[in-house]
Amino acid sequence: MNKKSGVKKRRYKLFVFLAFLAGAAFIILSSKAIRYTSTDEFCMSCHVHVHAEDAWRLSTHYDNKSGIIVHCVQCHLPPPGTINYLTAKAVTGARDVYAMIFKDTDAINWEAKRQLEAAVKHTFEESCKSCHQNLFPRQLSEEGMHAHLYYVNNEEELNCLNCHLHVGHFSEHAQQKMDFGFDRITEVLPDTVFEKSYLPQSFERFTERVPGTGISFDMLPIPGGVFAMGSPDNEPGRSDNEGPVRDVEVSPFFMLETEVTWDMYMTFLRETMSEGRTDAGAYVADAAGGAGGVDAISGPTPPWGNPDQGWGYGDRPAITMTFHGAQTFCKWLSQKTGKNYRLPTEAEWEFAARAGTQTPYFFEGNPRRFTETRWRNRIFGADTTNINSYVIYQANSLLRTQPPGVVRPNPFGLKNMLGNVWEFTSNFYSENPFEGYPEGQIIRDPQGPATGTERVIRGGSFRSDAFEVRAAVRRSTQHNAWLITDPQIPKSIWWYSDNNDVGFRVVLDWPLEEE
Protein backbone atom coordinates (compact mmCIF):
# COMPACT_ATOMS: atom_id res chain seq x y z
CA MET A 1 0.00 0.00 0.00
CA ASN A 2 1.48 3.33 -1.00
CA LYS A 3 1.55 6.41 1.19
CA LYS A 4 -1.17 8.28 -0.75
CA SER A 5 -3.72 5.47 -0.46
CA GLY A 6 -2.98 5.13 3.26
CA VAL A 7 -3.73 8.82 3.79
CA LYS A 8 -7.04 8.45 1.90
CA LYS A 9 -7.98 5.47 4.01
CA ARG A 10 -7.27 7.35 7.26
CA ARG A 11 -9.29 10.30 6.02
CA TYR A 12 -12.16 7.99 5.09
CA LYS A 13 -12.09 6.39 8.55
CA LEU A 14 -12.01 9.83 10.16
CA PHE A 15 -14.97 10.93 8.02
CA VAL A 16 -16.96 7.81 8.97
CA PHE A 17 -16.11 8.32 12.63
CA LEU A 18 -17.10 11.99 12.57
CA ALA A 19 -20.29 11.15 10.66
CA PHE A 20 -21.08 8.52 13.30
CA LEU A 21 -20.49 11.03 16.08
CA ALA A 22 -22.64 13.62 14.29
CA GLY A 23 -25.39 11.06 13.74
CA ALA A 24 -25.24 9.91 17.35
CA ALA A 25 -25.30 13.52 18.56
CA PHE A 26 -28.21 14.29 16.26
CA ILE A 27 -30.14 11.26 17.52
CA ILE A 28 -29.42 12.07 21.17
CA LEU A 29 -30.23 15.76 20.78
CA SER A 30 -33.32 15.00 18.68
CA SER A 31 -34.52 12.50 21.24
CA LYS A 32 -34.02 15.03 24.03
CA ALA A 33 -35.70 17.74 21.95
CA ILE A 34 -38.68 15.48 21.25
CA ARG A 35 -38.95 14.54 24.94
CA TYR A 36 -38.64 18.16 26.05
CA THR A 37 -41.13 19.49 23.51
CA SER A 38 -43.55 16.74 24.52
CA THR A 39 -43.79 17.80 28.15
CA ASP A 40 -46.93 19.45 29.48
CA GLU A 41 -44.89 22.47 30.56
CA PHE A 42 -43.59 23.05 27.04
CA CYS A 43 -47.03 22.64 25.46
CA MET A 44 -48.52 25.14 27.87
CA SER A 45 -45.67 27.64 27.46
CA CYS A 46 -46.99 28.73 24.08
CA HIS A 47 -50.48 27.22 23.96
CA VAL A 48 -52.92 30.06 23.41
CA HIS A 49 -55.97 28.35 24.94
CA VAL A 50 -56.18 30.24 28.21
CA HIS A 51 -58.33 27.68 30.05
CA ALA A 52 -56.79 24.47 28.69
CA GLU A 53 -54.59 23.73 31.73
CA ASP A 54 -57.28 24.45 34.32
CA ALA A 55 -59.85 22.31 32.49
CA TRP A 56 -57.29 19.49 32.12
CA ARG A 57 -56.50 19.47 35.85
CA LEU A 58 -60.22 19.16 36.65
CA SER A 59 -60.75 16.35 34.17
CA THR A 60 -60.75 12.60 34.77
CA HIS A 61 -57.49 12.42 32.80
CA TYR A 62 -55.81 14.21 35.70
CA ASP A 63 -58.06 14.06 38.75
CA ASN A 64 -58.93 10.37 39.18
CA LYS A 65 -58.80 7.61 41.80
CA SER A 66 -55.91 5.75 40.19
CA GLY A 67 -53.54 8.73 40.22
CA ILE A 68 -52.68 8.24 36.53
CA ILE A 69 -52.09 11.47 34.64
CA VAL A 70 -52.73 11.59 30.90
CA HIS A 71 -50.43 14.16 29.33
CA CYS A 72 -51.08 16.57 26.43
CA VAL A 73 -49.27 14.59 23.74
CA GLN A 74 -51.00 11.34 24.70
CA CYS A 75 -54.26 12.70 23.28
CA HIS A 76 -53.21 15.41 20.83
CA LEU A 77 -50.58 13.39 18.96
CA PRO A 78 -50.65 9.86 17.48
CA PRO A 79 -48.90 7.11 19.47
CA PRO A 80 -45.10 7.67 19.48
CA GLY A 81 -42.71 5.62 17.39
CA THR A 82 -44.30 6.33 14.00
CA ILE A 83 -43.63 8.83 11.24
CA ASN A 84 -47.18 10.10 11.79
CA TYR A 85 -46.16 11.11 15.30
CA LEU A 86 -43.33 13.35 14.07
CA THR A 87 -45.42 14.78 11.24
CA ALA A 88 -48.35 15.59 13.51
CA LYS A 89 -45.98 17.05 16.10
CA ALA A 90 -44.46 19.42 13.55
CA VAL A 91 -47.84 20.50 12.20
CA THR A 92 -49.37 20.97 15.65
CA GLY A 93 -46.36 22.91 16.92
CA ALA A 94 -46.30 25.19 13.89
CA ARG A 95 -50.04 25.86 14.24
CA ASP A 96 -49.76 26.78 17.93
CA VAL A 97 -46.73 29.03 17.38
CA TYR A 98 -48.51 30.79 14.52
CA ALA A 99 -51.60 31.33 16.68
CA MET A 100 -49.51 32.68 19.56
CA ILE A 101 -47.69 35.18 17.36
CA PHE A 102 -50.26 36.30 14.81
CA LYS A 103 -53.75 35.72 16.24
CA ASP A 104 -55.79 37.77 18.67
CA THR A 105 -56.41 35.11 21.30
CA ASP A 106 -59.14 37.18 22.94
CA ALA A 107 -61.16 37.01 19.72
CA ILE A 108 -61.08 33.20 19.49
CA ASN A 109 -64.32 31.43 20.41
CA TRP A 110 -62.89 28.84 22.79
CA GLU A 111 -66.26 27.24 23.58
CA ALA A 112 -66.75 26.52 19.89
CA LYS A 113 -63.30 24.89 19.82
CA ARG A 114 -64.50 22.46 22.51
CA GLN A 115 -67.36 21.17 20.41
CA LEU A 116 -67.14 17.79 18.71
CA GLU A 117 -66.56 19.12 15.19
CA ALA A 118 -63.40 20.94 16.30
CA ALA A 119 -62.21 18.41 18.89
CA VAL A 120 -61.98 15.49 16.45
CA LYS A 121 -59.48 17.51 14.39
CA HIS A 122 -57.08 17.83 17.32
CA THR A 123 -57.43 14.45 19.02
CA PHE A 124 -56.26 11.08 17.69
CA GLU A 125 -58.53 8.10 18.20
CA GLU A 126 -55.62 5.65 17.86
CA SER A 127 -54.12 7.34 20.93
CA CYS A 128 -57.35 6.73 22.85
CA LYS A 129 -57.17 3.05 21.96
CA SER A 130 -53.46 2.77 22.78
CA CYS A 131 -54.31 3.50 26.44
CA HIS A 132 -57.82 2.04 26.60
CA GLN A 133 -57.01 -1.32 25.07
CA ASN A 134 -59.70 -3.19 26.99
CA LEU A 135 -63.08 -1.63 26.22
CA PHE A 136 -64.87 -4.05 28.54
CA PRO A 137 -63.06 -3.87 31.90
CA ARG A 138 -64.51 -5.65 34.90
CA GLN A 139 -65.74 -2.46 36.59
CA LEU A 140 -67.60 -1.18 33.49
CA SER A 141 -71.27 -0.42 34.17
CA GLU A 142 -74.04 -2.14 32.23
CA GLU A 143 -74.81 1.13 30.46
CA GLY A 144 -71.14 1.52 29.53
CA MET A 145 -70.99 -2.07 28.29
CA HIS A 146 -73.90 -1.47 25.91
CA ALA A 147 -72.35 1.79 24.73
CA HIS A 148 -68.93 0.21 24.06
CA LEU A 149 -70.49 -2.77 22.31
CA TYR A 150 -72.38 -0.34 20.11
CA TYR A 151 -69.11 1.48 19.37
CA VAL A 152 -67.31 -1.75 18.44
CA ASN A 153 -70.07 -2.58 15.97
CA ASN A 154 -70.05 0.93 14.45
CA GLU A 155 -66.39 2.02 14.53
CA GLU A 156 -66.48 3.42 10.99
CA GLU A 157 -69.22 5.90 11.94
CA LEU A 158 -68.31 6.69 15.56
CA ASN A 159 -65.42 8.37 17.30
CA CYS A 160 -64.47 7.96 20.97
CA LEU A 161 -65.26 11.67 21.42
CA ASN A 162 -68.90 11.13 20.46
CA CYS A 163 -69.42 9.97 24.04
CA HIS A 164 -66.23 11.07 25.83
CA LEU A 165 -65.81 14.61 24.56
CA HIS A 166 -64.98 16.17 27.94
CA VAL A 167 -62.83 13.55 29.66
CA GLY A 168 -59.63 15.42 28.75
CA HIS A 169 -60.85 18.95 29.47
CA PHE A 170 -63.65 19.20 32.01
CA SER A 171 -66.77 21.21 31.22
CA GLU A 172 -69.31 21.78 33.97
CA HIS A 173 -72.03 22.49 31.39
CA ALA A 174 -71.47 19.50 29.16
CA GLN A 175 -71.29 16.33 31.21
CA GLN A 176 -72.02 13.38 29.01
CA LYS A 177 -74.95 11.92 30.95
CA MET A 178 -76.63 14.65 32.94
CA ASP A 179 -79.36 14.01 35.45
CA PHE A 180 -82.09 15.46 33.28
CA GLY A 181 -85.19 14.28 35.10
CA PHE A 182 -88.21 15.82 36.73
CA ASP A 183 -86.07 17.78 39.21
CA ARG A 184 -84.47 19.72 36.34
CA ILE A 185 -87.66 20.66 34.52
CA THR A 186 -89.49 21.80 37.65
CA GLU A 187 -87.10 24.75 37.74
CA VAL A 188 -89.41 26.48 35.26
CA LEU A 189 -92.55 26.24 37.40
CA PRO A 190 -94.44 29.54 36.97
CA ASP A 191 -95.55 32.03 39.61
CA THR A 192 -98.74 32.78 37.65
CA VAL A 193 -100.92 30.12 36.00
CA PHE A 194 -103.38 30.98 33.22
CA GLU A 195 -106.92 29.67 33.52
CA LYS A 196 -107.98 29.77 29.88
CA SER A 197 -106.56 30.36 26.42
CA TYR A 198 -107.25 33.35 24.19
CA LEU A 199 -109.78 32.97 21.37
CA PRO A 200 -109.06 35.57 18.64
CA GLN A 201 -112.12 37.03 16.94
CA SER A 202 -110.22 38.80 14.16
CA PHE A 203 -107.20 38.18 11.99
CA GLU A 204 -104.65 40.16 13.98
CA ARG A 205 -101.74 39.56 16.31
CA PHE A 206 -102.75 37.88 19.57
CA THR A 207 -101.09 36.50 22.69
CA GLU A 208 -101.80 32.86 23.40
CA ARG A 209 -101.99 31.75 27.03
CA VAL A 210 -101.61 28.05 27.73
CA PRO A 211 -104.13 27.03 30.45
CA GLY A 212 -102.65 25.44 33.55
CA THR A 213 -99.24 26.95 32.83
CA GLY A 214 -97.49 30.30 32.95
CA ILE A 215 -96.54 30.11 29.29
CA SER A 216 -97.70 32.75 26.81
CA PHE A 217 -96.48 33.58 23.32
CA ASP A 218 -97.39 35.81 20.38
CA MET A 219 -99.02 34.49 17.21
CA LEU A 220 -98.72 36.73 14.13
CA PRO A 221 -101.18 36.91 11.20
CA ILE A 222 -99.67 35.81 7.87
CA PRO A 223 -102.02 37.11 5.16
CA GLY A 224 -101.56 34.39 2.57
CA GLY A 225 -101.38 34.98 -1.17
CA VAL A 226 -99.56 33.91 -4.32
CA PHE A 227 -95.76 33.90 -4.54
CA ALA A 228 -92.98 32.33 -6.63
CA MET A 229 -91.69 29.46 -4.50
CA GLY A 230 -88.09 28.36 -5.01
CA SER A 231 -85.01 30.12 -6.38
CA PRO A 232 -84.12 31.10 -9.95
CA ASP A 233 -81.24 29.36 -11.69
CA ASN A 234 -78.95 32.38 -11.35
CA GLU A 235 -79.35 32.86 -7.58
CA PRO A 236 -75.91 32.65 -5.87
CA GLY A 237 -75.54 29.50 -3.79
CA ARG A 238 -78.56 27.80 -5.36
CA SER A 239 -78.98 24.00 -5.14
CA ASP A 240 -80.92 21.89 -7.63
CA ASN A 241 -83.55 20.95 -5.03
CA GLU A 242 -84.71 24.58 -4.79
CA GLY A 243 -86.63 24.41 -8.05
CA PRO A 244 -88.24 24.58 -10.44
CA VAL A 245 -89.77 27.90 -9.43
CA ARG A 246 -93.58 27.60 -9.30
CA ASP A 247 -96.42 29.96 -8.44
CA VAL A 248 -97.91 28.82 -5.15
CA GLU A 249 -100.90 30.13 -3.24
CA VAL A 250 -101.16 29.75 0.51
CA SER A 251 -104.21 30.46 2.66
CA PRO A 252 -104.02 32.89 5.60
CA PHE A 253 -102.64 31.47 8.86
CA PHE A 254 -101.11 32.48 12.17
CA MET A 255 -97.45 31.73 12.90
CA LEU A 256 -95.49 31.78 16.15
CA GLU A 257 -93.36 34.93 16.34
CA THR A 258 -90.26 33.02 17.44
CA GLU A 259 -89.01 29.48 17.33
CA VAL A 260 -90.46 27.33 20.12
CA THR A 261 -88.42 28.24 23.19
CA TRP A 262 -87.04 26.05 25.95
CA ASP A 263 -89.51 27.63 28.38
CA MET A 264 -92.35 26.40 26.18
CA TYR A 265 -90.84 22.97 25.56
CA MET A 266 -89.91 22.50 29.22
CA THR A 267 -93.53 23.07 30.18
CA PHE A 268 -94.54 20.35 27.75
CA LEU A 269 -91.89 18.06 29.27
CA ARG A 270 -93.01 18.75 32.82
CA GLU A 271 -96.57 17.71 32.04
CA THR A 272 -95.87 14.70 29.83
CA MET A 273 -92.33 13.40 30.39
CA SER A 274 -91.93 9.72 31.21
CA GLU A 275 -89.18 8.52 33.55
CA GLY A 276 -89.28 5.05 32.03
CA ARG A 277 -88.82 4.06 28.40
CA THR A 278 -92.06 4.10 26.46
CA ASP A 279 -90.55 4.35 22.99
CA ALA A 280 -91.42 0.87 21.82
CA GLY A 281 -94.56 -0.39 20.10
CA ALA A 282 -96.58 2.07 18.07
CA TYR A 283 -94.00 4.79 18.51
CA VAL A 284 -91.31 2.96 16.55
CA ALA A 285 -93.32 3.40 13.34
CA ASP A 286 -93.40 7.13 13.98
CA ALA A 287 -89.66 7.60 14.50
CA ALA A 288 -89.11 9.68 11.35
CA GLY A 289 -92.52 11.26 11.47
CA GLY A 290 -94.69 8.64 9.83
CA ALA A 291 -97.99 7.22 10.98
CA GLY A 292 -98.00 6.15 14.58
CA GLY A 293 -100.13 6.36 17.70
CA VAL A 294 -99.85 9.01 20.39
CA ASP A 295 -101.99 8.60 23.47
CA ALA A 296 -103.31 11.59 25.36
CA ILE A 297 -100.55 12.70 25.71
CA SER A 298 -97.48 10.53 26.37
CA GLY A 299 -94.36 12.64 26.19
CA PRO A 300 -90.62 12.14 25.89
CA THR A 301 -88.33 9.92 27.89
CA PRO A 302 -85.26 11.70 29.35
CA PRO A 303 -82.78 12.86 26.68
CA TRP A 304 -79.45 11.19 25.97
CA GLY A 305 -77.07 13.88 27.20
CA ASN A 306 -77.61 17.56 27.80
CA PRO A 307 -80.20 18.95 25.34
CA ASP A 308 -79.31 22.64 25.74
CA GLN A 309 -75.58 21.87 25.12
CA GLY A 310 -74.72 24.08 28.09
CA TRP A 311 -75.80 27.22 26.20
CA GLY A 312 -78.80 27.92 28.40
CA TYR A 313 -82.56 27.40 28.35
CA GLY A 314 -85.12 30.21 28.77
CA ASP A 315 -86.06 31.91 25.51
CA ARG A 316 -83.39 30.23 23.41
CA PRO A 317 -84.88 27.89 20.79
CA ALA A 318 -85.53 24.33 21.97
CA ILE A 319 -83.31 21.86 20.11
CA THR A 320 -82.36 18.16 19.85
CA MET A 321 -85.95 16.90 19.75
CA THR A 322 -86.96 14.66 16.83
CA PHE A 323 -89.75 15.41 14.37
CA HIS A 324 -91.89 13.08 16.46
CA GLY A 325 -91.15 15.17 19.56
CA ALA A 326 -92.06 18.41 17.75
CA GLN A 327 -95.25 16.88 16.37
CA THR A 328 -96.27 15.60 19.80
CA PHE A 329 -95.67 19.06 21.28
CA CYS A 330 -98.16 20.42 18.74
CA LYS A 331 -100.74 17.84 19.79
CA TRP A 332 -100.19 18.65 23.46
CA LEU A 333 -100.50 22.40 22.76
CA SER A 334 -103.68 21.80 20.78
CA GLN A 335 -105.17 19.78 23.61
CA LYS A 336 -104.26 22.46 26.18
CA THR A 337 -105.63 25.42 24.20
CA GLY A 338 -108.51 23.87 22.27
CA LYS A 339 -107.01 25.08 18.98
CA ASN A 340 -105.47 23.11 16.13
CA TYR A 341 -101.76 23.91 16.42
CA ARG A 342 -99.51 22.18 13.90
CA LEU A 343 -96.19 22.42 12.07
CA PRO A 344 -96.12 24.65 8.97
CA THR A 345 -96.05 23.21 5.48
CA GLU A 346 -92.96 23.93 3.44
CA ALA A 347 -94.89 26.42 1.29
CA GLU A 348 -96.26 28.25 4.34
CA TRP A 349 -92.79 28.44 5.81
CA GLU A 350 -91.20 29.97 2.69
CA PHE A 351 -94.09 32.41 2.20
CA ALA A 352 -93.69 33.60 5.79
CA ALA A 353 -89.90 33.80 5.51
CA ARG A 354 -90.01 35.88 2.32
CA ALA A 355 -92.63 38.23 3.79
CA GLY A 356 -93.56 39.69 0.42
CA THR A 357 -90.04 39.74 -1.04
CA GLN A 358 -88.65 37.65 -3.88
CA THR A 359 -84.93 38.17 -3.28
CA PRO A 360 -82.48 35.64 -1.74
CA TYR A 361 -83.15 37.17 1.69
CA PHE A 362 -86.02 39.31 2.93
CA PHE A 363 -83.48 42.15 3.22
CA GLU A 364 -81.04 43.62 0.73
CA GLY A 365 -77.82 41.77 0.07
CA ASN A 366 -76.00 39.51 -2.37
CA PRO A 367 -75.10 36.10 -0.90
CA ARG A 368 -71.75 36.25 -2.73
CA ARG A 369 -70.82 39.30 -0.67
CA PHE A 370 -71.59 37.50 2.61
CA THR A 371 -70.40 33.92 2.08
CA GLU A 372 -67.19 32.66 3.69
CA THR A 373 -66.76 30.03 0.98
CA ARG A 374 -65.17 32.63 -1.35
CA TRP A 375 -61.45 33.09 -0.78
CA ARG A 376 -61.77 36.79 -1.61
CA ASN A 377 -64.16 37.34 1.30
CA ARG A 378 -61.98 35.33 3.68
CA ILE A 379 -58.90 37.38 2.81
CA PHE A 380 -60.32 40.87 2.38
CA GLY A 381 -63.43 40.56 4.52
CA ALA A 382 -66.96 41.62 3.63
CA ASP A 383 -69.47 44.15 4.86
CA THR A 384 -71.87 41.87 6.75
CA THR A 385 -73.53 44.59 8.81
CA ASN A 386 -76.93 44.10 7.16
CA ILE A 387 -77.10 40.30 7.33
CA ASN A 388 -75.74 40.31 10.88
CA SER A 389 -78.65 42.47 12.01
CA TYR A 390 -81.23 39.95 10.75
CA VAL A 391 -79.64 36.48 10.85
CA ILE A 392 -77.83 34.31 13.41
CA TYR A 393 -75.45 32.28 11.26
CA GLN A 394 -71.91 30.93 11.21
CA ALA A 395 -70.20 34.31 11.06
CA ASN A 396 -71.83 35.87 14.14
CA SER A 397 -73.36 33.04 16.22
CA LEU A 398 -70.32 31.97 18.28
CA LEU A 399 -71.46 28.51 17.09
CA ARG A 400 -74.44 28.31 19.41
CA THR A 401 -78.11 29.28 19.48
CA GLN A 402 -79.05 32.81 20.47
CA PRO A 403 -82.17 34.38 22.04
CA PRO A 404 -84.68 35.87 19.56
CA GLY A 405 -84.09 39.47 20.61
CA VAL A 406 -80.56 39.51 19.19
CA VAL A 407 -81.72 40.15 15.61
CA ARG A 408 -84.41 42.22 13.89
CA PRO A 409 -87.66 40.62 12.61
CA ASN A 410 -88.69 40.24 8.96
CA PRO A 411 -91.45 42.46 7.46
CA PHE A 412 -94.14 40.14 8.87
CA GLY A 413 -92.65 40.58 12.37
CA LEU A 414 -91.25 37.03 12.56
CA LYS A 415 -87.89 36.57 14.28
CA ASN A 416 -85.17 34.13 13.25
CA MET A 417 -86.97 32.83 10.19
CA LEU A 418 -83.49 32.68 8.68
CA GLY A 419 -80.70 31.23 10.81
CA ASN A 420 -80.44 30.34 14.51
CA VAL A 421 -81.89 26.84 14.03
CA TRP A 422 -83.28 24.88 11.12
CA GLU A 423 -87.05 24.42 11.46
CA PHE A 424 -89.13 21.31 10.89
CA THR A 425 -91.91 21.51 8.33
CA SER A 426 -94.69 18.96 7.94
CA ASN A 427 -93.63 17.93 4.41
CA PHE A 428 -91.91 14.69 3.55
CA TYR A 429 -88.68 15.43 1.69
CA SER A 430 -88.37 15.09 -2.08
CA GLU A 431 -85.63 16.47 -4.33
CA ASN A 432 -88.38 18.07 -6.44
CA PRO A 433 -90.85 19.81 -4.09
CA PHE A 434 -93.50 19.97 -6.85
CA GLU A 435 -93.29 16.41 -8.04
CA GLY A 436 -96.77 15.18 -9.02
CA TYR A 437 -98.32 18.65 -9.33
CA PRO A 438 -99.68 19.68 -12.79
CA GLU A 439 -97.64 22.12 -14.88
CA GLY A 440 -98.79 25.63 -15.72
CA GLN A 441 -101.18 26.04 -12.80
CA ILE A 442 -101.03 27.87 -9.50
CA ILE A 443 -100.50 25.28 -6.80
CA ARG A 444 -102.80 25.90 -3.85
CA ASP A 445 -101.70 24.97 -0.32
CA PRO A 446 -99.31 22.15 -1.36
CA GLN A 447 -98.77 19.46 1.24
CA GLY A 448 -95.83 17.76 -0.49
CA PRO A 449 -95.40 13.99 -1.06
CA ALA A 450 -97.90 11.68 0.65
CA THR A 451 -95.17 9.38 1.95
CA GLY A 452 -91.45 9.48 2.65
CA THR A 453 -88.75 8.70 5.18
CA GLU A 454 -87.34 12.15 5.97
CA ARG A 455 -88.87 15.59 6.54
CA VAL A 456 -88.02 18.99 5.06
CA ILE A 457 -86.17 21.45 7.28
CA ARG A 458 -85.86 25.12 6.40
CA GLY A 459 -84.03 28.32 7.25
CA GLY A 460 -80.45 27.37 8.04
CA SER A 461 -78.89 27.60 11.49
CA PHE A 462 -76.13 29.06 13.61
CA ARG A 463 -73.76 26.67 11.81
CA SER A 464 -74.76 27.77 8.31
CA ASP A 465 -72.83 29.87 5.81
CA ALA A 466 -74.60 32.87 4.27
CA PHE A 467 -75.42 30.78 1.18
CA GLU A 468 -77.41 28.39 3.37
CA VAL A 469 -79.66 30.93 5.09
CA ARG A 470 -81.39 32.09 1.90
CA ALA A 471 -85.20 31.86 1.92
CA ALA A 472 -85.33 29.11 -0.73
CA VAL A 473 -82.83 26.73 0.88
CA ARG A 474 -84.28 23.32 1.75
CA ARG A 475 -82.66 20.33 3.38
CA SER A 476 -83.86 16.98 4.71
CA THR A 477 -83.67 15.53 8.18
CA GLN A 478 -81.10 12.74 8.62
CA HIS A 479 -82.88 10.69 11.22
CA ASN A 480 -80.52 7.71 11.47
CA ALA A 481 -77.34 9.80 11.19
CA TRP A 482 -78.57 12.10 13.97
CA LEU A 483 -78.92 9.08 16.29
CA ILE A 484 -75.52 7.49 15.70
CA THR A 485 -74.23 8.03 19.25
CA ASP A 486 -77.41 6.87 20.98
CA PRO A 487 -76.63 3.25 22.08
CA GLN A 488 -80.14 2.52 23.36
CA ILE A 489 -82.10 -0.38 21.91
CA PRO A 490 -84.43 0.75 20.49
CA LYS A 491 -83.04 4.22 19.88
CA SER A 492 -84.99 7.16 21.25
CA ILE A 493 -87.70 8.54 19.00
CA TRP A 494 -87.85 11.71 21.11
CA TRP A 495 -84.29 13.05 21.19
CA TYR A 496 -81.41 13.30 18.73
CA SER A 497 -77.99 12.47 20.18
CA ASP A 498 -76.06 13.93 17.23
CA ASN A 499 -77.89 17.06 16.14
CA ASN A 500 -78.20 20.38 17.94
CA ASP A 501 -79.27 22.90 15.32
CA VAL A 502 -82.86 21.95 14.45
CA GLY A 503 -85.97 23.34 16.17
CA PHE A 504 -89.46 24.34 15.05
CA ARG A 505 -92.29 26.85 15.27
CA VAL A 506 -96.05 26.31 15.19
CA VAL A 507 -98.91 27.67 13.06
CA LEU A 508 -102.71 27.98 13.24
CA ASP A 509 -105.19 27.96 10.37
CA TRP A 510 -107.47 30.92 9.76
CA PRO A 511 -110.46 30.97 10.02
CA LEU A 512 -109.76 29.34 13.33
CA GLU A 513 -110.29 25.60 13.62
CA GLU A 514 -110.94 24.51 17.19
CA GLU A 515 -110.06 21.08 18.46
Describe the protein in words.
The chain is α+β, with helices and mostly antiparallel strands. The protein has 2 domains: 37-164, Di-heme elbow motif domain (Multiheme cytochrome fold, Orthogonal Bundle), CATH 1.10.3820; 203-509, paralog of FGE (formylglycine-generating enzyme) (Alpha-Beta Complex), CATH 3.90.1580.10. It is 30% helix and 9% strand. It contains 17 helices and 11 strands. The protein has helices at residues 3-36, 40-46, 52-57, 72-76, 83-102, 110-113, 116-119, 125-131, 142-152, 161-164, 182-185, 262-272, 323-337, 346-354, 367-370, 375-380, 385-390; strands spanning 206-209, 216-222, 225-229, 246-250, 253-256, 422-428, 443-444, 455-458, 474-476, 502-503, 507-509. The strands form 3 sheets. A 4-stranded antiparallel β-sheet has the order 1-2-5-11, with no helix packed on it.
